[in-house]
Amino acid sequence: MTIETPLLLSGAPGSPYTRKMLAVLRYRHIPYRFFLSGHDTPKTLPAPKVQLLPTFYLKENGSEYQAAVDSSPLIRRFEAAFSGRSTLPPDPVVDFIDYLIEDYADEWLTKAMFHYRWHYKPDVERAAAILPRWRAVTASEDDHLKMGKMFAERQISRLYVVGSNDTTAPVIEASYERFLGCMKSILEKQPFVMGKRPGSSDFGIFGQLTQLTHFDPTPMALTLEHAPRVFAWVDIMEDLSGVEPAEGDWIAREAVPGTLGTLLKEIGRVYAPALIANAKALMTGAEKVEAEIDGKPWVQQPFPYQGKCLQWLREKREALTADDRKILDGLLASTGCETLFA
Ligand SMILES: N[C@@H](CCC(=O)N[C@@H](CS)C(=O)NCC(=O)O)C(=O)O
Fold it and tell me: How far apart are CA 206 and CA 106, in angstroms?
């Protein structure tokens, strides 16, 4: 498979998935051109079926430009098209762990990101002031104020999509604080979640943290207070073009329980029950996901995409050889993540 470079993508600094993908492209030395969405994206490029940031415009095998969204599958498409500096661990068991953590970052950590930004007044005010100025830096103050108000109203009205509400706020916030502890303890041992080189999970976490640690004041203050190391890590992750990864730099499967155990337990504690309750609601056609997460009530709107996330996790585990699956199951046993496959 060939994909023409430079890759074209449009996105925004305030979009965690945009930041995730830009960091992947820099680390992998894949040439790209970045357009600010809604501002300097060429009008001749095709629109994606689902409008999401970032949007890539890809010429694959000599085709016309085609719009593509969804960071995790795109990372895998780029792995097939560009060799070297891979973000996918070669050991299938470690690769599964990397995928699971990336999925948690993209789908659960993003709840914290969206929640803090649009729940607390100082965070809402910062986002309303800056987001529109990224889109059109030269517009008038008047237009910025109007756009900021519109943005905030729209996003606050969509908090229900990620499941941020007064019932779930304590669950989301306690989880973010525990996550900081998990990351801190990993970074005391090794520079990346995946060892001495970054995996796709590192980029997924990085994407969400660009906002949580470096933009939104409430989670930023929490991070600086409890885990300044994690704040510093985000700056490091932004541009890894100078890192020279070696094959032996990946975390060994034997090291997973000792190093990533607490993070896997956090995923099992909150994300696994959320995925399972969501899938149940989708299956029964229920209007609401109602569950208990971390011993507290959880209520949100069913989320079809996360139904697929669970499906993909199950397919990926099924695709392992029997021996690898046994080892994976051993690693996940009593983390709570094993319930995803029960
Ligand atoms: N699963 C997608 C999620 C992308 C996504 O949700 N992007 C957000 C911005 S960070 C978005 O475009 N939301 C729609 C909107 O803001 O209108 C990915 O991994 O790329």
Answer: 10
Residue 303: pLDDT over 80: yes
Instruction: Show the tokens assigned to 330.
Output: 């051993």
- How many helices (H) and strands (E) in the chain? 15, 6
| Per-residue pLDDT reduced to its tens digit, 35-79 | 999 778 999 999 999 999 999 999 999 999 999 999 999 999 999
Which of 39, 37, 32 lies closest to 48, judged by CA? 37
Q: Span 279-307, mean pLDDT?
A: 97
Q: Is the CB of 70 under 6 A from ligand 1?
A: yes
Strand partners, 195: 192, 250
DSSP state of 267: I
Q: For residue 38, what pLDDT is reported?
A: 79
**Nearest CA, atom 13, ligand 1:** 52
Nearest-CA residue for atom 10 of ligand 1: 15
Query: Using omega within 30 degrees of 0 as the cis cutoff, is the peptide bond preceding 89 cis?
Result: no
Say yes or no: domain 7-81 is CATH 3.40.50.300: no
- Domain segments of the chain: what residues? 7-81, 92-106+170-341
pLDDT, averaged across the chain = 97
Mutate to test the pocket of ligand 1, among 52, 55, 211 (most ligand atoms within 8 A of CB): 52
**Bridge partner residues of 120 (DSSP):** none
pLDDT, tens only, 205-237:
999 999 999 999 999 999 999 999 999 999 999
* Rama region for 60: left / alpha / beta (φ>0; ψ in -120 to 50; rest): beta
CA distance 288 to 270: 18
* Residue 106 in contact with ligand 1 by CB distance below 6 A: yes
